[in-house]
Amino acid sequence: MIKMEHLIHRYTIWKSETEKSKKTVLDGISCDIPSGQFIGILGPNGSGKSTLAKHMNVLLLPDEGTIWIDGKNTADREKLWEIREEVGMVFQNPDNQIIGTSVEEDVAFGPENRNLPSEEIQRTVEASLNAVGMIHKRKTSPSYLSGGQKQRVAIAGALAGNPSCIVLDEPTAMLDPQSREEVLKVVQYLNKEKGITIIWITHHTEEVTEADQIFLMDQGKIVKSGSPQEIFAQPEFLKSIKLEVPAITELSDRLRQNGIPLSNPILREDQLIAEITNLKHGFAARQNERENHQDRQKDQENQNDQSILEVKDISFTYGKGTVNECKVLENISFLINENETVGIIGSSGAGKTTLIKHLNGLLKPQHGSIFFEGENVNDKRYRISKLRRGVGLVFQYPEQQLFGRTVLADVCFGPLNLGSTKEEAEQSAKECLRLVGMDESYDYVSPFELSGGQKRCVAIAGVLAMKPKILVLDEPAAGLDPGSRLMIFDLLERIRKERNMAIVLVSHDMDEVARYTDRVLVVHGQKLALTGTPQEVFSQTKFLDEIGIGVPQVTSVTRRLMDEGIPVSHPAVTMEEAEQLLLENWKGADVYA
Questions:
Q1: CA distance 402 to 105
Q2: Where are the beta strands (DSSP E) in 114-218?
Q3: Residue 453 · residue 480 · CB < 8 Å
Q4: For labelling alongside 346, which of 87, 427, 518, 563 has CA 20 to 30 A away?
């Protein structure tokens, strides 16, 4: 299907306002991808994955080397449109490819351009939308959809083109766990039953455990390839290039290193449950129920309970009074306290992004009130600029708020608009850029030439330069490699402590929420359905599964092991806790040998 020989691609990099150079992003890529395979591509941010994907759809041409798609050389301009019909493309940000005024119009774009009969177009659109669970939104404008819903529409648009190969660049980065699983099942069906070649670029390693082959990329090269069993049996190598093994594989590896005889590697939850259950007699019966040992409580004891922001009974409806009326929030109330980290979770379309837009005045509640530092922001005499200075918002896609010609100019924008001199603004901007790990070599680079993780850092720096008291982040680590995710959350924790700042985190990654937040808010059915510590919230596994959120994978494993009679006192919410709970009652294979 795809053959590459010594593929090289270079980008132009600006070192200053006048000096530029070339940066090699793909450095001699050679590989073969047979028709009908499911290929996983893993690699840290900046390793060249997205650039490679664009070559497969002829959005880019090689500086050196050759790439053939189904026997056609991408350098042959006469074959350009034939190749693009062969290879469908789904981008990380669906806004880059959604153009229709309604969902069905957007999905129909490809079939219409192939001059298909109207009846066939209608059948194709319906089948594609059914496949991604969006048929009920066919008449809806994409502007009314959540980020996760838009991604599903983008995938439906690719499916409607009836390609031989589909390249998906982080297609589930913004989806809730249930939607992620549904999309993956659809793509696996297309691969196994329809014979479509799938190239799946992701940072969720558990999504490629059933791939035919995995390519690992680092610094523009394919550094290793093999089956999932071969790749994930080398956790230290993965960590050396800022990747991680699936959570199930990591947990089983930790247990094996501590004497529990498990296979290497274990890639799926069912396999781990089965192997541990077979070792049931090696676990001693639990003598006493343990109390929850979450260290998180000590942070809550030290935090100041003085609330900075109060949300009181707010409601919001899009398109109110029109045929597209859609109620999103109803009577939502909660507090944000000083120096705490609050997680907001919910399925795609639950209203999380709409909710946080209220926190800094991008949207005004149609009912209810918001109080910032004791002042009602709905008061006609209240200056909304005060709220926006005090509550900084980093969007789901950082490129939506980056617009400066250079990184430094972009971060300077906020302080300049608050009345700082150019010198003061630059000093503040450089301080914040250094705080997020961007050294002076990036000051005069265009923000649009950066990797996803670097863009996220610049966006955070731009908000920090405004010196807010609350930092609100919508999916701050989506699409980032494990090393970049860890860097982002370490950065946020350092900022919270150094600046005594509250952080509000919206995420579809339950492991992130469990590990990094003090309190969790669950948005469902237009309301605040559940609130509490991560341990309290994630103990409600049945309810969370029912509403499509799910729980951290280690929570699911430990809950299932409890049901199988393994002596685990309570469901774990972090990897470290799951390891401790299982090891503390392990007495060894000699018990039953």
A1: 29
A2: 165-169, 197-201, 213-218
A3: yes
A4: 563
Tokens 């600006």 sit at which residue? 14
Which of 568, 570, 592 lies closest to 255 in space, CA to CA? 568
Instruction: For residues 408 and 413, give the distance between their C-alpha atoms in angstroms, rounded to a whole number.
Output: 9
CA atoms within 13 A on the CB side of 531: 12
Q: What confidence category does residue 589 fall into, taking pLDDT thresholds of 50, 70 and 90?
A: low
- The pLDDT, as a whole number, for residue 205 is 87
CB atoms within 10 A of CB 14: 15
Unique residue bearing structure tokens 């950065």: 491
Is residue 202 within 8 A of residue 40, CB to CB? The reply is yes
CA distances from 145 to 48, 89, 94, 272, 524 (A): 30, 20, 11, 38, 16
Identity of residue 67: I
Q: Count of alpha carbons within 13 Å of 208, Cβ hemisphere only?
A: 33
Query: What is the number of alpha carbons within 13 Å of residue 526 lying toward its C-beta?
Result: 12
Q: What is the pLDDT of residues 255-268, one digit of tens each?
A: 999 999 999 899 99
DSSP alpha helix (H) spans, 383-517: 384-390, 407-417, 422-435, 452-464, 482-499, 510-516
pLDDT tier for residue 204 given thresholds of 50, 70 and 90? confident
Q: Is 99 exposed, middle or buried (0-12, 13-18, 19+ CB in 10 A)?
A: exposed
d(CA 497, CA 340): 9
Place of tokens 């610094």: 219
